[in-house]
Design a protein that fits this description.
By secondary structure, this protein is mainly alpha-helical. 64% of the residues lie in helices and 5% in strands. The chain has 6 helices and 2 strands, in the order ββαααααα. The chain has a two-stranded antiparallel ribbon. The structure holds zinc ion (ZN).
Length: 127
């Protein structure tokens, strides 16, 4: 998902609104702009359940890394802030629809995961 800068013809990642080469402001059509904004939003699911999220987002390298203590924190950080972009770029999604549907599901699974952990904690602590 790349485009070329209309000023200097350099390849630019599609979610950037400015060319890294010459600083030229790229004109994104509204649909691209909407996608670019979406790709920059933090991934809630990665924050709540990094391992599950990375797997579901098809970021298998980050999934493996998230299983390693300490490196897991790096995976969490990258997942939250760059996860959507990485997943869109490397996930091999058929289309935008499939990608965003999966992102929604993974965010919900993250929330469910926290509830399950909370319930287990509550059970172990008080019951
Ligand atoms: Zn340029």
């Amino acid at each position: 998902m790349n485009q070329t800068c209309t000023s200097c013809q350099r390849e630019v990642e599609a979610w950037n609104e400015k060319c890294g080469g010459c600083g030229f402001t790229l004109e994104l059509v509204p649909d691209d702009l909407r996608k670019a904004r979406y790709l920059r939003t933090p991934a809630l699911g990665a924050l709540l359940f990094t391992q599950g999220w990375a797997f579901g987002a098809r970021l298998y390298f980050w999934f493996l890394l998230s299983l390693v203590p300490v490196f897991g924190l790096i995976a969490l950080f990258v997942g939250v802030f760059f996860g959507r972009r990485l997943s869109w770029k490397y996930g091999g999604w058929a289309d935008w629809e499939e990608f965003t549907n999966r992102m929604k599901i993974m965010d919900l699974i993250g929330v469910a995961w926290i509830f399950i952990l909370g319930a287990i904690y509550f059970y172990a602590r008080f019951v």
